[in-house]
Fold each of these.
Amino acid sequence: MKGRIPEPVYYGDYLKLNELLATQSPKSAEYGKEEHEETLFIIVHQVYELWFKQIIHDFGSIVNVFNKNAIEESELGTVVSRLERIIKIQGLLLEQLDVMETMTPMDFLEFRDLLVPASGFQSAQFREIEIRMGLGTGNRIAVDREYFLGRLNDQDRERLTKIEKEPSLLELLEKWLERVPFTQEGNFDFWKEFESVVSEMLDQEQSIIERNKATLAPEMMNAQLANLESTRETFQSLLSSDTHEKLMKEGQRKLSQKATLNALFILLYRDEPILTQPYKFLQLLMDIDQGFTTWRYRHALMAHRMLGTKIGTGGSSGHLYLKRAADNNRVYTDIFNLSTFLIPRSKLPTLPVDVKKKLNFYFSEDLN
Ligand code: HEM
């Protein structure tokens, strides 16, 4: 910047290394015999918390972009590159568990009892990431809800309760998807076309099964027909607003029908230039969900290896609780589930010319 004469900076001052490197205080030392492995235990957790801080920093900026009524194409580019960075960080988070496991279960036993009742349950930053992604208290398993806020100090509990009232990326994603145009233009109703293509496809399958009557055992044929009927019902559940509503009430779907359909449209027409970034964005949301789920399973395995069937320092059943939380605590499952409704490219309804033009970066002489 013009006119700015920077002061010389010293590496250690800039990074506040004196402060940072003075923050490892093994509990075992306080009790008279410092356990060598406790330093590793502390540093690994601290490094995690630093990366959580970076994830929250990037995720916050993504939420800010979506917390508006219109999003510029270039902003979506920034969102995509920040999400890509978070996914790279998740790779490190996973790898760090290997470093943690160089401490053996018996080494851990030398200081574990000194840590009770401190536990990963109290990682307020991990909870913040979950909440900002869209995993609210209401989406947790009952036991998890109790641990979720119950183990925190007042300050962390109040902060997280406040964050939970702010819009999560899941909620903002829903609003953004609801605004996606293209599927209803003049007389064109994409979902009517889609429904008739699907119905034609399934009718064809039915006639193939029935044509095989001579070679198929009756039970086999009935099973195949029943299977086909259930596929029909699944597609109906997507296209019928009543069924969708019912599934939302039961907690089986999180996004509104409009948002779900528009997300499917993005997946189906991902090759259209205007949909490539939105498609990438949806892929990255699945990657993030998958990254944390993989970490949760891997962490559950580590807890099993370290503790066997002992309970955790935070009082949960230990690895069994962690496995259940990994199964349950997913956020963007609706996007994963969309694969159910994909159809072959060759069967995709042809879009009217004006819709096709809108999906392309259309350069006209008239604009010059
Ligand atoms: C020796 C290593 C570790 C063991 C044995 C272990 C064990 C456990 C156990 C048993 C729980 C369930 C809560 C409880 O009852 O305490 C838990 C929760 C948790 N741990 Fe660890 N952990 C270890 C290392 C780590 C590390 C390095 C991190 C990184 C930040 C971490 C983060 C968490 C988080 C975020 C939770 C809450 C998970 C949830 O509720 O979904 N843990 N851990």
Note: The chain has a mean pLDDT of 93.
Amino acid sequence: MMNQKLKAIASFVSKYDTVLDTCCDHAYLAIYLKKNKLCKEVYASDINPNALAVAKKNIAGAKLEIKTYLSDGLKTVDNKDIDTVVIAGVGADTVLDIIRSAPSSIKKYIISSNNHLAYLRHKLRKYNLYIQEEVAVLDKHKYYVVMLVTKDYVKDNRNTIRFGKSKNVEYFRHLIKKEEKVVDRIPKNKVFRRFRHKQNIKTLQKLIKRI
Ligand SMILES: C[S@@+](CC[C@H](N)C(=O)[O-])C[C@H]1O[C@@H](n2cnc3c(N)ncnc32)[C@H](O)[C@@H]1O
């Protein structure tokens, strides 16, 4: 089933893209892209044979033809046409492992990591990959950040690395609440740690004013 996160991912796909959805799970995204003719071609892969079996069943149920691969990232995907890779619903370390296993011919990544977004943003730059756009979407009371990443250089700063470049005021308010909870939990004598998180709150408030 397409949720807000998968729709946000689909919004970054263009009709000229040849897409591989790694971590496809039940292939909802690939089916949606194919059914609505939103890209040139789409393939689906997953490391888990059970997930892939359900994906194949869903693809057949939708009366579509989508080639699937059982693969850890792109390690056993022998397809030279792919230029766009989706990596979503896994942690930052897996995202980075998958990027390392990908050929240099990949022009575009669409990424939604389950965790450590600031670390991921920082690391992507080390691989000469740059976040062009980001959206933060709310789905079932949880925020998901989706990043459009290419090799085109983009200047970033501390704030875009830490908090991203989505223009979603509600998401920034959500980050402020998280920071407030962190401050509440830090003992009063840990002055520097408390200061750092209070500074984060001030920065987020400034970012909201600029939107
Ligand atoms: C939570 S599901 C995400 C499904 C969908 N991409 C989404 O974002 O809603 C995570 C999927 O990633 C797959 N996965 C985890 N590590 C992987 C890897 N290294 N390569 C390919 N698939 C992986 C799991 O088997 C699982 O099906």
Note: The CA atoms of residues 108 and 150 lie 5 Å apart.
